[in-house]
Amino acid sequence: MEDEAVAGAPRLTRREASALRRDQIVRAAAQVFGAKGYRTGSLADVAEQVGITHAGVLHHFGTKEQLLVEVLQQRDEQGVADLEGRHMPRGIDLFHHLVRTVRANVQRRGIVQGYTVLTGESVTEDHPARAWVTGRFTTLRAEIAAAVRDVGGPQVSDEDARRAASAVIAVMDGLQVQWLLDPEAVDLAETTRVGIEAVLRAACPHVSLPRLG
Length: 213
Known about the structure:
Layout: H1 14-36, H2 43-50, H3 54-61, H4 64-79, H5 92-105, H6 109-121, H7 130-152, H8 158-181, H9 188-203
Helix pairs in contact: 1-2, 1-4, 1-6, 2-3, 4-6, 5-7, 5-9, 6-8, 7-8, 8-9
C-alpha cells in the first residue's frame, strides 16, 4: 500500500516523492532510535514523526532491521560528507577520523546500540542484514589495512596490515559493547584512541606516531 502523498511537494514525480519520503523516514528513525534506543523505539514512533502509518513505513523499508541499515548507511555517509571526495581518508588521517567518529558516537547512544544489536544478530543464518554487515566489515578492513600500509610503508606486510585492521575494528566494536553496558566504567572515546594507537604501534614499531583525535 502506498503511503500518503508527501505534503508540500505536489509537483514531484512519483519516484522523487518516494525518495523524499524515504529520506524523511530515515531521519525520523535516527531521531527515534537515538532517543529511545533501537529496541524501545518502534516503527509506530517513526511513522508518527513523519505523519504516516506504520504500514507506510513498512511499504518503503519492509522491516525494522532494514530501516536501521538505512540509518547506519546515512550515518556513514554523513560522517564523510565534509571530507574530500566524500570517502574515507588515507594514511594516518583515517585513524584520526575513526577517533573523531567515536567521539561523535558518544552523543548518539541509540544509534550505537542499534548498530551493536544488528551486527550481533547478523551472525545468525538468513538474517536480513547479514549481507550488509559482512560487506561493511570487508570494506572497512580493506580501508584500514591500506591506511596501516600507508603509515608503516614497505616494512609492513599485507598480512600484518590485515591483522591490524581486524584488531582496530575489534577494539572499536568491543569497547562499544562495554560502554553500552556500563558507560560510567568506560570512557569510549579515549579508550578507543588508546586501543587504536596500541594496534598501530604494534603494526608499525619503526614509525613515530602522533596522538590520534
